[in-house]
């Protein structure tokens, strides 16, 4: 199911009238010249190609590990600078409550660590990068991005490549190559590119037992939750347009299809 964020088209026109009028007793001649300028906004259109942007966690046991892949394409006309990921959840079921194993969705999410978060695979040709350097759990990612929790932000900050962590608590999952291949930063239209993101999520196998010798994770038996991933595409900073340098003969600003199309 694709998810899209789009900046709609906006069109405005301006007309300049010039009147030519004869003098004296001669009849007046009137000539109207009209110059029209059309301003059209480009489109910011992210296509998350995936069977679903949701992951259902159910019938899992501690020690299980699974992979979730997302593929992003740019279906708009503007280069995408960042793809900001936010983690949410819904439809939590406490499957063991009737046996005294009461738990919450937040507790359940803490049992899952994100061991690898890989971005890149530029156009399918390389530049993959692991951006989780240490363990972070799903609750941390949710708490940081959805609830704007500062303590969760600081915890994740220690576990992730800093350039990929946004100030608003969301994680940028678009590629940042910098000096290596800056033309592929984000998801440009030119050169053509798509990005893949891979998450490896593991159900932590906690061997801790209570006073009676029962595993503390027993209370999560039968629990299930639905993870909701949302992705926000952002544009590059504004560019001071040089008509001869940046636009074609029709006025189309080709430069806005590329990465780094911004004023310094």
From TrEMBL:
Residues 1-27 form the signal peptide. Keywords: Capsid protein, Signal, Virion. It comes from Bacillus haynesii. The keyword Cytoplasm does not apply. This is Spore coat protein. It holds the Pfam family Peptidase_M73. The lineage of its organism: Bacteria, Bacillati, Bacillota, Bacilli, Bacillales.
